[in-house]
Amino acid sequence: MRASLPLLTLTLVAVAGCGGSKVRGDGPPSGSVSIPDLPGDAVPRPEPRSRYGNGPVYEVLGKRYTVMNTARDYQERGVASWYGKKFHGNLTSNRETYNMYAMTAAHKTLPLPTYVRVRNLRNDKSVVVRVNDRGPFVHNRIIDLSYAAALKLDMVQDGTSLVEVTAINFDEPAGPRPTRSTGVGKTPPAAGTEPDPVDSKPTPSITSNLVYVQVGAFGDRANAERRLGALSLAGIEKAFIHEERAPERTLYRVRIGPVDDVIQYDILVEELENIGIIDPYLITE
User: Fold this and answer.
1) Which of 97, 191, 206, 221 is the most exposed place for a label (fewest CB within 10 A)?
2) Which residues contact 144 (CB under 8 A, 6 or more apart)?
3) 157 and 247: one domain?
4) What is the pLDDT of residue 171?
5) In a domain, 7, yes or no
6) Does residue 207 contact residue 154 with C-beta atoms inside 8 Å?
7) CA dihedral of 120, 123, 125, 130, whole degrees rounded to 10
8) Which of 114, 141, 167 is the last residue of a domain?
9) Is 211 within 8 Å of 121 (Cβ atoms)?
10) Rg of the chain over CA atoms, in angstroms?
11) Domain shared by 76 and 151, yes or no
């Protein structure tokens, strides 16, 4: 039984490497980096499960986490954060050295290592990273990216972004090959070193998606109206019913938005939790 498995308790010092750059007072390197100087996406390959950082159960700040048996079919949308120079050169949860210029990430429950594609929902930029660390241990955050990955996704300045995270299965293609816009496969600087300062301004976004929060999909419009009424009673604004017609049936999806940024999303998630809605889903148009 799961309860009989040994419990790995991590100290605050051990988990300080992940959690959200704004919270930790973390930041970019003292020099700046241009996207063409960064390494290409992580190249997925079969790897054995690490002896370290895989629980199967561990505890951080009084909360238990159970590591997934497999990453297959994992996909989640939510908030990504990033971590940088404060932890550059420190050990990750699987006892590798964290390199802020490499294409890596931290996740609370995916097996170590796992390769995932992370897509910025706002601008459709995406990267492939190798998950080799634990975190972020901050409410409403699903993944903590390296500085290099965050820079490619154009989220360094804001510190967070709304993203989609999809695990890569090795019997399926990993996606388009990296191009110059996503990195050209250069070797990242070694941990403990920094590249020469160059222009760090990200390439302007070509796409700008509208992001909505979906809080229910109903076959009966009356049920959708009841959910809309509950949102109104809670003072949640910008909620509406999106009618999706199909030959076999019509679905009534209750959505809120558009959501302008992560701060607004965080506030909305807290308001939804207060009325018992704990599974909002991000939608883009």
Assistant:
1) 206
2) 18, 19, 20, 80, 81, 82, 83, 105, 106, 107, 133, 135, 136
3) no
4) 63
5) no
6) no
7) -10
8) 167
9) yes
10) 20
11) yes
User: Whole domain around residue 102: which residue ranges?
Assistant: 17-50+66-167
Looking at the domain assignment, is residue 75 inside a domain? yes
- Check: CB of residue 58 under 8 Å from CB of residue 100: no
92-112 per-position pLDDT tens digit: 999 999 999 999 999 999 999
**How far, in Å, CA of 223 to CA of 274, rounded?**
20
| Chain-centroid distance, C-alpha 183 | 19
Domain identity same for 150 and 23:
yes
Name the residue with tokens 């809080």.
Answer: 215
Domain total of the chain: 2
Give the tokens for residue 165: 């995270």
Condensed to tens digits (0 to 9), the pLDDT of residues 231-270 reads 999 999 999 999 999 888 999 999 999 999 999 999 999 9
The CB-side HSE value for 240 (13 A sphere, CA atoms) comes to 7
The reply to whether 145 falls in a domain is yes
In a domain, 101, yes or no: yes
Q: How far is CA 8 from CA 113, 114, 176, in A?
A: 18, 20, 38
Q: CA torsion, points 197, 179, 20, 144, in degrees to nearest 10?
A: -130
Residue at token pair 């301004």: 201
Q: Span 15-21, mean pLDDT? A: 42
Amino acid residing at 120 = N
Structural contact between residues 95 and 178, judged by C-beta atoms closer than 8 angstroms: no
The total number of residues shown for the chain amounts to 285
Q: Six-digit token pair at 109?
A: 């429950």
Whether cis (ω within 30° of 0) applies to the bond prior to 258 is: yes
